[in-house]
Amino acid sequence: MSESIKALVALVLVICLVCGFIVWLPGGDMPASIIFYLRYGCPALAAGCLAFLVWAQTRKDKAPDLLARISARYFERDGFCFSIVPHISNRQCSMQVFFQNRFSNRCEAQILIRPTSSFFSATVNLPDIALGISCGPGEFGCSTIPWAIPEKLQGKQISLSLYAGVKYPNGRGGLLRYRDGMRVGSVSTDVWREGLQIAGAVVGALVISRPARINIILPKDVISEMQDSIIAETKVIWKLGDPLV
């Protein structure tokens, strides 16, 4: 369920409580019929909103929210959720993209990660990352992507813009997880395959809407040279029917 819907219901709950309290105060010039409806209607609507919020928070998922173990706040586009985590091994920096599908049918997703540029900030000379992922029903996995950081940027804080595009070839199916993520911008490109394209390979990307943004501090003392061949290593960590670990 959308967090915006729950926020709207919570706002209606607060308004009802405030109005219900005010109309019980002595005085006022409202007609008696309106006062009657407000005195009893506001508490009734507030009780309904409260019951809805309790139900929305306590209903059980049909698939575990494994992505929440990686990050308390993660991102989403149309049911495909993901979180990005820089990773260092043997001085090689990689970007780990953990992902999970909220629906019961397979989806094909594209993720675009690029340095944020604006009128007030200089362009960061850091390669874009474009990644294609095929994700099964409720599936949880990780793609590890080599990411070369130029020496002059190592140790500095930068802002990254996140986009994603998602397709469900056979429709979404049923909802398996009810918590949604922070919405990212939509992107469409002509590259729909698993793997990685980096630095200039996403020139044809069409950015459709405003991205989500995240600030990260780039690692120090890592290899700055770009590899000749860059391939994302994608593995499935959990799928429907597997025992929980």
Describe the structure.
Helix 1 packs antiparallel against helix 2 (32-58). 19% of the residues lie in helices and 33% in strands. Strands 4, 5, 7, 9, 10, 11 and 12 form a seven-stranded mixed beta sheet that branches. The radius of gyration is 23 Å and the shape is elongated. It has helices at residues 3-22, 32-58, and strands at 75-77, 80-89, 92-101, 107-115, 129-135, 140-146, 157-167, 182-183, 185-188, 195-198, 206-207, 212-217, 233-238. It has two helices and 13 strands, in the order H-H-E-E-E-E-E-E-E-E-E-E-E-E-E. The chain has two domains: 3-58; 66-238, no CATH class. Mean pLDDT is 83; it is low at 191-204.
Count structural domains. Answer: 2
N- to C-terminal separation?
26 Å
Coarse morphology: elongated
Give the strand tally: 13
SS strand fraction: 25-35%
How large is the radius of gyration? 23 Å
Mean pLDDT across every amino acid position: 83
Uncertain runs with pLDDT below 50, 5 residues or more?
Answer: 191-204
- Total helical segments: 2
Largest sheet: 7 strands, mixed
Summarize the helix and strand pattern as letters.
HHEEEEEEEEEEEEE
Structure class: alpha+beta
Give the helix level as a range of percent.
10-25%
